[in-house]
Design brief:
The chain has eight helices and nine strands. With 265 residues, the protein is an alpha/beta fold. It has one domain (5-240): TIM Barrel (Alpha-Beta Barrel), CATH 3.20.20. Strands 1, 2, 3, 4, 5, 6, 7, 8 and 9 form a nine-stranded mixed β-sheet that branches. The longest helix has 13 residues, at 176-188.
C-alpha cells in the first residue's frame, strides 16, 4: 500500500512540536507525498494556537514546491463550548480541513465513557467536521460501536493513527482499542485515513504501522481516503465548499531542491 497524502501533522504552532510549516512541507516533498494537512492543536491544549492563528492561515501557500497544503486544525472536543469544540464554527468553516479529537487537560481526563461518547457523537453531527483523530485512544474511553455508527452516519473519516502504534507513543501501551476500532470501521464501511500525526518533519508520511493494522483488518489501498491528493480533494469537496482552498497560490522557492536519494532535508 502506497499513500501519497498525510492528513494529520503538527508544526511548532502546536506548542509541543518541533518543525516549522516549511520544514513539514519539505519533509512531505522529500517523502514523495502529494498533499499534507497542517492540523495544529486548538487553544484548549496547553500552548495550543489561538483562533486568530487559524483564521489567518489564508496567508499560507496552497501549494509549496509541488506539495498541496491543506490549512486545517485538530480542534479539541470541549465540554463547555457551544459547538462542542474549542474553535468556533465561524473559524472552522474557513479551514480546508477540520480534524477533531480528545486530548489531555481539555476537560475529559476523568475517563467517563458515557460522557466521552456523548461528546464525540455531538461533534460528529457537525457538518464542518471531516475526521476524528486517534478515535480508539484508550486514555479517553468511548463506546466504540457508537462512535463508528456516528462516523458512518455523518460521513466522517475515522483515523488510523500510525503514532498510536509507535513505541515512542504512550498510546502504544494500550493500542488494543485502536485495533478494535479499525476492525469495526471496516465492518461498517466507514471512511478511513492512515496518518502520521507527525510532530517533527522527518516523521511526515510515516505510515507503516498504520498500514499493517489496516491491512490486517481487511482494508485495501482503494479503501483509504488519503491514497493520493485527488482522492482527498474529491472527498472534501463532495462534503462542503472550501472557500479558501486555493487562497495563497502556488509558491516555489527557486533556491531549494529536494535532497538526492538517500538524503533527508
Amino acid at each position: 500500500m502506497r499513500l501519497l497524502a498525510d492528513l494529520h501533522t503538527h508544526t511548532m504552532a502546536s506548542g509541543h512540536a518541533y518543525s516549522t510549516l516549511t520544514e513539514m512541507v519539505r519533509g512531505a516533498a522529500v517523502g514523495g507525498l502529494e498533499l499534507i494537512a497542517i492540523t495544529d492543536h486548538g487553544p484548549a491544549v496547553p500552548q495550543g494556537s489561538h483562533y486568530w492563528y487559524f483564521w489567518n492561515s489564508k496567508v499560507l501557500p496552497a501549494v509549496m514546491d509541488g506539495v498541496r497544503i491543506l490549512k486545517g486544525c485538530e480542534a479539541n472536543i470541549s465540554p463547555t463550548e457551544e459547538n462542542g469544540l474549542d474553535l468556533p464554527d465561524v473559524v472552522l468553516e474557513k479551514l480546508d480541513f477540520v480534524a477533531i479529537g480528545f486530548h489531555p487537560l481539555t476537560g475529559f481526563d476523568d475517563g467517563d465513557i458515557e460522557c466521552n461518547t456523548e461528546a464525540i457523537e455531538r461533534v460528529l453531527a457537525n457538518p464542518l467536521v471531516d475526521m476524528v483523530t486517534h478515535p480508539g485512544n484508550a486514555e479517553f474511553p468511548v463506546h466504540l460501536e457508537r462512535v463508528v455508527a456516528g462516523a458512518r452516519a455523518h460521513g466522517v473519516i475515522l483515523e488510523i493513527n500510525d503514532n498510536s502504534f509507535q513505541a515512542s507513543s504512550s498510546r502504544s501501551l494500550h493500542s488494543e482499542s485502536e485495533r478494535e476500532l479499525v476492525g469495526l470501521a471496516h465492518e461498517a464501511g466507514c471512511f478511513v485515513a492512515i496518518n502520521s500525526d507527525a510532530h517533527y518533519h522527518l516523521h511526515v508520511g510515516r505510515f507503516d504501522h498504520g498500514i499493517a493494522v489496516a491491512e490486517q483488518a481487511g482494508f485495501t489501498e482503494a479503501d483509504i481516503i488519503n491514497r493520493h491528493a485527488n482522492s482527498v480533494l474529491e472527498f472534501l469537496l463532495a462534503r462542503r465548499s472550501r472557500p479558501r482552498l486555493n487562497m495563497g497560490g502556488d509558491w516555489i522557492d527557486p533556491t531549494w531542491e529536494p535532497p538526492s536519494r538517500g538524503e533527508r532535508a
